[in-house]
Design brief:
The chain is an alpha/beta fold. Helices cover 48% and strands 12% of the residues. The protein has helices at residues 2-7, 11-21, 24-31, 38-48, 86-89, 93-104, 118-125, 139-151, 170-175, 185-192, 195-204, 223-234, 240-249, 262-270, 292-303, 318-327, 336-368, and strands spanning 51-52, 67-69, 72-74, 78-80, 108-111, 129-133, 156-160, 253-259, 275-278, 308-311, 331-334, 380-381. Strands 4-11-10-9-8-7-6-5 form an eight-stranded parallel sheet. The protein has a two-stranded antiparallel sheet with strand order 1-12.
Length: 385
């Protein structure tokens, strides 16, 4: 890892290296929010405006990052967020993420639309495997997905609320990165000038929606085959009735993701959620969304004594993790940084991205004279709004 640290000393270094190794349309897929990308910038601004106070004259001990949530102990209060179409970024990216999360003893959340199957994710992430569900409109498929998830040994189901409709991503439209994908002269040229990515992708084959293949008529499902299937059988709006039905069907921990205000959080708890994730989907769904860093504290102050509260969106460093923890989160998930890691350095990059974030979290806690993640709220200076 020493050589990796010299080449990529922070997440921004991973991002810059990734941009040189993958086609522009793939990089844009990682980077883009939606519409005018206002929410991406707002996430960054909101996190930058969260300030922490050091207590330099307090006793100083080495920080202990260990965390206990939902009945399980982890080495740190960070996890890998659910990521779709990771195989487009680098072949086997989700498997790399799962192995890195297990090695670090933190949660790995697999997306329904990942290119890694439920069964394979359970092998790689083991007891740290969580599953994120986009509830299908086809009830039989939904029931079978839950059966497979439970059979894999997974105890934590994450239901995402904030995708009632596809978002509008301008760069993706222009590049032809859609379902079905469009091959354009530009995308062909961009692939040709990124030979390592092209050779790895050709060797591995086009990415598939691995969790959905059992429900297709064909034994293989390229992205182009999935378009009609996704529109007609996989997309369901998650309202209160849908969430209540999932709660009845799922016997283990139920986590609701996409919470942005107290009213939704309260209703989710009343419907049986064991935990919530305050999130604006990494600014990829609603460009007018409030940043998670602006709504988290109010939710935590109101409901932190009733449920487990976690957060994501816009995390680019261990400092950002500390900021979310100080605002009231008990676990913080990272998405884009993990994709930059594998795009920059392959398998080693997945572990390196986690190391950078968690090492920085430990460093800032030591700087603050903060012993545990649970104590970070004591160091919060009221964020500017």
């Amino acid at each position: 890892m020493d050589q990796l640290l010299l080449r990529s000393a922070c997440i921004d270094d991973l991002k810059k290296r990734a941009k040189k190794r993958i086609p522009t349309f793939v990089f844009d897929y990682i980077e883009e929010g939606c519409n005018a990308n206002t929410a991406v910038a707002n996430n960054r601004t909101a996190l930058n405006n969260v300030h922490l106070r050091p207590d330099y004259l307090a006793p100083h001990t080495a920080p202990n990052l260990s965390t206990h949530v939902l009945g399980q102990s982890y080495n740190a209060p960070g996890g890998v967020a659910p990521l779709g179409l990771t195989g487009l970024v680098w072949p086997n990216a989700s498997a790399m993420h799962a192995r890195a999360a297990h090695a670090a003893n933190i949660p790995f959340v697999l997306s329904t639309v990942s290119t890694l199957s439920i069964e394979d994710a359970a092998v790689h992430a083991k007891e740290n495997f969580w599953f994120q569900l986009y509830p299908p409109s086809d009830a039989a498929i939904g029931a079978d997905l839950l059966r497979r998830v439970e059979q894999s040994g997974c105890k934590n189901l994450v239901v995402t609320l904030d995708v009632p409709t596809p978002s509008r991503r301008i760069r993706a439209i222009k590049s032809g990165l859609s379902v079905p994908p469009k091959i354009t002269p530009t995308s062909v040229f961009q692939s040709m000038i990124r030979p390592k990515w092209s050779m790895a992708t050709v060797a591995h084959g086009l990415p598939l929606f691995a969790n959905l293949t059992p429900y297709m008529d064909s034994s293989t499902m390229a992205m182009s085959d999935a378009a009609q299937f996704m529109r007609t059988r996989m997309r369901a709006v998650v309202d209160a009735q849908t969430l209540a039905q999932i709660r009845q069907m799922w016997p283990h921990n139920l986590i609701v993701k996409g919470i942005s205000h107290v009213a939704d959080a309260t209703q989710a708890i009343e419907l049986g959620a064991d935990a919530i994730i305050v999130s604006n989907h990494g600014a990829r769904q609603l460009d007018a969304a409030q940043p998670s860093a602006l709504c988290l504290k109010a939710i935590a102050d109101e409901l932190g004594h009733k449920t487990t509260i976690m957060a994501d969106s816009g995390v680019e460093s261990g400092v950002d993790v500390a900021r979310y923890l100080a605002l009231g989160a008990q676990m913080v998930f990272t998405g884009r940084a993990m994709l930059y890691g594998v795009a920059a350095h392959g398998e080693d990059g997945a572990a390196h991205a986690l190391d950078l974030i968690l090492d920085e979290l430990e460093q800032i806690m030591s700087q603050l004279h903060c012993d545990t993640p649970y104590d970070l709220s004591k160091h919060l200076i009221t964020p500017k709004i």
